[in-house]
Amino acid sequence: MANIREVVDALSRRSGVDAVMVVGRDGLPIDSRAANGVDAENVAALLPSVINGMAQLGQAGGRGEFGTAVLEFGSGLAVVTVLHADAQLVVLVRPSTNVGALLYDLRRHRSAIAGLL
User: What sections of 61-116 are H helices per DSSP?
Assistant: First the structure.
């Protein structure tokens, strides 16, 4: 059976991926792989507040609990997903990357990934 490090490694090897981070709700990295130029510790520290904001947006908009978001920036995308109450995942990808398969895999395997923690 795979462990969380193997999952992070596999996700980081996908085409167009610059960083993969599993982050605790306290903002500390559980495991991560990041390319040069990505400040993984700072991203990890910021992630819980981003997720809290997204959860509040979902509640205010009557959308329910936050699950996954794709955030677009000038230099790429951030795919953010809640694995369970104590862990989140963020995948940073380059701008031209098709994230459809990544989103499908994260949705399909989210509970299995969460079970590794």
Answer: 100-115
Kindly list the domain boundaries of the chain, sorted by start residue.
4-115
pTM over 0.85: yes
| CA 36 – CA 34 distance, rounded (Å) | 7
* Of 22, 21, 32, 20, residue with least CA distance to 87: 22
Give the CATH superfamily of 4-115.
Dynein light chain 2a, cytoplasmic (3.30.450.30)
Which tens digit of pLDDT belongs to each residue from 79-111? Answer: 999 999 899 999 999 998 999 999 999 999 999
Q: How many beta carbons lie within 10 A of that of residue 10, not counting itself?
A: 13
**Residue 1 pLDDT > 80:** no
